[in-house]
Specification:
alpha/beta, Purple Acid Phosphatase, chain A, domain 2, 6-stranded mixed sheet, 35 strands, globular
């Protein structure tokens, strides 16, 4: 009996030892996170505005990077960070066809025809996903063969009746996060299971920018506060790795509630293993200065590996996490963040599967864009819209004023106040040397309207006084660096950190911009000096009275507070038009064609100009190097030379000197 007991004990020990040998300590795992962002429906390397190939962008090229990166490490997760379904004529075409004949009921949106072939694991919503309304967004997302997340958009009422109460976390409008169960191979060749948590966030400013679609339907919470709530919950539910996919940029200024660019503070939330960014159309690592907590070489913010992969598919973001199994769980032992740039050389290869899946929509878009509206007898261009009054901005402004006159005639604008119009150069070179409007003399079509006005904004009218008009222009003048009057060295005029779509020109008044004075506001609308750059501001030849009331025609983004312009915060809107601005421009062009059947000449009216510069100052701007740009430079701009494509600051740009 004793012998039997001893033999049983020995057998149990041997069995336990065998089990231990059968389940050895897991080896390390390298988990690869891949990200695209801000594709804006640029699926092919094609410039619809110029109607020609452009190899510098397009998901058909990013796809090759995705497939290559996945072949290097099958332990991978592929994510998209939004601003996907808006931003190119292809997206406009799909929306128009949906309105006309229910496109999305018959087939997926072209972005998903492309992305479904690439094996995305999840997507996050950017701010531009809301441009067409919640119903269109819902119908569009049905075409994705992968799930979507967003944690900070809630059903209306989630903040209480006054909108200031505690968040009702159970009223999330979308799926806040996912826990992806992944089978991975460790360093010893064994299969392991890892749970990857993915949390999605979008800028709270969508409530301003798309107020007409969202008000009364949803509310949006602060991104950092949302992450602080959900990440412990994700960990409690077993997330081994937490990835925050946030459609936001990097701003290291002091933290504010509802920050638009909150990545600096998101990275400081406990429990985040990787941060994936977008929205700003910049590169990280790369485009941000090394300040406290930001390491551009390692690609970390507050020690958290971070990527932001540019725009339009020109880069793929990759974060490699080294995971080690310790104390009964997977832990991040190291990381490496990088960007991979597409091959943008002429004739570079593309992913044929992506091309084939969207080719029919691409061709249909081109046919749709070629619908003629009239003829122009001189070119339309925006090569120098940042430094001199410009015909491409002028025609938008004229169309807005034309429509506003009809509003007045119909009694929708009741006061006899003067009408002004604010418009900006949307294609002012922000996205490279081809990001300029160029419409040669001849037929002008719907393609050109999409070129002149790239966003699906609607027209709105605000009522403000002359003092606010002045501050509006002071904010716009933040587009420029201050010129040192004592320096003879070359000085760059344009402040690259200031988005060109926030450089509003206001027609109906006349003024000069004095760039020898300090900027009054920074790009975020914070007052940084008492500088007075706007000089000789007049209306009908007389100085603008600060108390004089004006109607200013603008777009819904600006009127609702987009760009943080002083006094323009959604509270001074007096008319919200149901028409898109592009529709109004198209109608205006048809009117001009009827009035001028032989064609008309679009010209700027010269209502603003740069104030004279000091003698000897060498002030430079960067614009298109093409011959057409040099021909349109005007009297105050002198072409110097073209920079090489390898120039890190201004690759391939033409260099122009602004004369006195």
């Amino acid at each position: 009996m004793v012998l039997s007991t001893r033999l049983g004990a020995v057998a149990a020990v041997l069995l336990l030892a065998g089990c231990q040998q059968a389940t050895p300590q897991p080896g390390d795992v390298t988990l690869r996170l891949m990200q695209t962002s801000d594709i804006h429906s640029n699926l092919l390397g094609f410039d619809y505005y110029q109607n020609k190939e452009n190899p510098k962008f397009g998901l058909s090229r990013t796809a090759l990077l995705i497939r290559q990166a996945r072949s290097e490490n099958p332990n991978s997760v592929l994510l998209d960070n939004g601003d996907l379904i808006q931003g190119s004529p292809l997206a406009d075409y799909v929306f128009a066809q949906q309105e006309k004949s229910g496109y999305l009921a018959r087939q997926p949106h072209p972005v998903f025809k492309a992305m479904n072939t690439l094996g995305y694991d999840a997507g996050n919503l950017g701010n531009h996903e809301f441009n067409y309304g919640l119903n269109y967004l819902s119908q569009t997302l049905k075409g994705a063969n992968f799930p979507y997340v967003n944690a900070n958009v809630f059903d209306a009422g989630a903040f209480g009746r006054d909108g200031k109460g505690q968040i009702a976390w159970n009223k999330a409008h979308f799926t806040p996060y996912l826990l992806l169960d992944r089978k991975v191979i460790d360093s010893q060749g064994h299969e392991q299971s890892i749970k990857v948590g993915v949390l999605g966030l979008t800028p709270p400013q969508v409530m301003q920018w798309d107020k007409r679609h969202l008000e009364g339907k949803v509310v949006v919470a602060d991104m950092v506060e949302t992450a602080e709530h959900y990440i412990p919950e994700m960990r409690a539910k077993g997330a081994d790795v937490v990835v925050v996919v946030a459609h936001t940029g990097i701003n290291a200024n002091s933290r504010e509630q509802l920050m638009e660019n909150a990545a600096y503070y998101l990275a400081q939330v406990k429990g985040i293993d990787a941060l994936m960014l977008g929205h700003a159309h910049k590169n990280f690592p790369g485009d941000y200065p090394d300040i406290a907590g930001i390491d551009n070489q390692k690609g970390t913010i507050a020690g958290v590996p971070t990527v932001m992969p540019g725009f339009w598919g020109n880069h793929l973001g990759i974060i490699d996490l080294k995971l080690t199994y310790q104390q009964g769980r997977w832990q991040v032992a190291g990381s490496h963040a990088q960007l991979r740039q597409i091959d943008s050389s002429a004739g570079s290869p593309v992913d044929q599967q992506v091309v084939q899946n969207v080719q029919a929509d691409h061709e249909a878009t081109n046919r749709w864009l070629d619908s003629p509206l009239g003829r122009i007898t001189t070119p339309l261009q925006s090569f120098f819209a940042l430094v001199q009054d410009d015909p491409s901005v002028q025609i938008v402004s004229d169309a807005q004023l034309w429509h506003a006159q009809s509003l007045r005639q119909s009694g929708l604008l009741k006061e006899s106040w003067p009408l002004l119009s604010a418009a900006a150069p949307f294609r002012g070179g922000r996205n490279g040397i081809t990001d300029y409007t160029w419409v040669p003399a001849g037929s002008i079509s719907l393609r050109n309207v999409s070129d002149l006005y790239i966003y699906p904004n609607t027209l709105q009218v605000v009522a403000i006084n002359g003092a606010t008009v002045k501050e509006w222009l002071e904010m716009s003048a933040g587009q420029f660096n201050r010129i040192d009057t004592a320096s003879k060295a070359p000085q760059d005029l344009v402040n690259k950190g200031f988005p060109t779509y926030n450089f509003d020109v206001i027609d109906g008044v006349h003024y000069q911009i004095d760039v020898t004075q300090p900027a009054r506001y920074d790009k975020d609308g914070a007052k940084v000096s008492d500088g007075q750059r706007i000089r000789q501001l007049t209306w009908q030849g007389k100085p603008v009275d600060p108390a004089q009331m004006f109607y200013v025609v603008t777009n819904n983004y600006r009127a609702s507070g987009g760009g943080h312009f002083p006094g323009i915060n959604g509270k001074v809107i007096v008319h919200e038009d149901p028409k898109e601005t592009r529709e109004i421009i198209s109608e205006y062009l048809v009117k001009l064609a009827k009035d001028h059947p032989q064609g008309f000449a679009p010209r700027a009216d010269g209502n603003w100009q740069m104030a004279p510069l000091p003698q000897g100052a060498d002030v430079r701007i960067y614009s298109s190097p093409r011959a057409e740009a040099r021909a349109e430079a005007g009297q105050r701009l002198h072409y110097l030379h073209t920079l090489p494509e390898q120039d890190t600051a201004n690759p391939g740009y033409g260099v122009y000197r602004l004369t006195h």
